[in-house]
């Protein structure tokens, strides 16, 4: 877990390639884009999950932009970053088969190394023997076919989560913190980041 500390001057330098990235709402938690949810009292968790190719700095900047937008939308002036976490995350559902290919999906032979053609064969039709096992369709106690051993993993992307507290005026209380958090002007942050988009 890394601590993310950005101040006004670093925001301007943090992501010089922001224009190549797309700022968008996520369709749900863990999907590409921004997602926010109340945590406790007046604190909000803001997460930005980047798409493939986005840098950690770009993703952190977009999380700050979303925090600034939420602050302005709630009629507040500033937000404080109480906690931050930047990490690699996997995007997508590992159970979805869209866009994948393989013998089962393409209709090619499902027998490892047999060269046989199983297209059009119904269930229960015998496959060629699997090395070291009986001829029971490849799963009857013999070696597991290579297709089962191959596992698809969703792509790894950068993700930043901020826990923020919003407020207005010159007074603030941050209960439960050992040190004073970094405080940002929502209007300035939004203007600086949007200018680069």
Which labels suit this protein?
alpha+beta, 2 domains, single chain, five-stranded antiparallel β-sheet
What is the residue-averaged pLDDT?
73
Shape: globular
Helix content: 10-25%
The total count of strands amounts to 5
What's the end-to-end separation, in Å?
A: 28 Å
How many domains, as an integer? 2
Strand count, sense and barrel status of the largest sheet are: 5 strands, antiparallel
Question: What fraction of residues sit in β-strands?
Answer: 15-25%
Description:
Helix 2 (56-73) packs across helix 5. The protein folds into two domains: 8-92 and 156-195, no CATH class; 103-153, no CATH class. The chain is globular. By secondary structure, the protein is an alpha+beta fold. Mean pLDDT is 73; it is low at 1-20, 102-106, 108-116 and 121-130. A hairpin with a 2-residue loop joins strand 1 and strand 2. It has helices spanning 8-14, 56-73, 103-106, 146-149, 186-195; strands at residues 33-40, 43-49, 78-90, 156-167, 182-185. It is built from five helices and five strands, in the order H-E-E-H-E-H-H-E-E-H. Helices cover 22% and strands 22% of the residues. The longest helix is centred in the first third of the chain and has 18 residues, at 56-73. The chain has a five-stranded antiparallel beta sheet.
Short summary:
It contains 5 helices and 5 strands; from the N terminus they run H-E-E-H-E-H-H-E-E-H. The protein is of the alpha+beta class and 197 residues long.
């Amino acid at each position: 877990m890394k601590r993310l500390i950005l101040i006004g001057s670093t925001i301007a330098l943090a992501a010089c390639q922001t224009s190549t990235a797309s700022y968008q709402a996520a369709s749900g938690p863990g999907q590409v884009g921004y997602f926010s949810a109340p945590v406790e009292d007046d604190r909000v968790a803001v997460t930005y999950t980047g798409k493939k190719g986005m840098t950690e700095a770009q993703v952190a900047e977009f999380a700050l932009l979303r925090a600034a937008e939420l602050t302005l939308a709630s009629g507040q002036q500033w937000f404080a970053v109480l906690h931050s976490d930047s990490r690699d995350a996997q995007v997508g559902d590992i159970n979805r088969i869209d866009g994948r290919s393989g013998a089962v999906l393409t209709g090619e032979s499902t027998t490892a190394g047999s060269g046989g053609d199983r297209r059009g064969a119904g269930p229960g039709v015998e496959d060629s023997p699997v090395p070291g096992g009986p001829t029971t369709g490849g799963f009857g106690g013999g070696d597991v076919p290579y297709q089962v051993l191959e596992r698809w993993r969703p792509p790894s992307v950068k993700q930043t989560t901020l826990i923020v507290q919003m407020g207005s005026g010159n007074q603030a209380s941050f209960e439960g913190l050992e040190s004073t958090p970094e405080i940002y002007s929502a209007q300035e942050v939004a203007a600086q980041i949007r200018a680069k988009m």
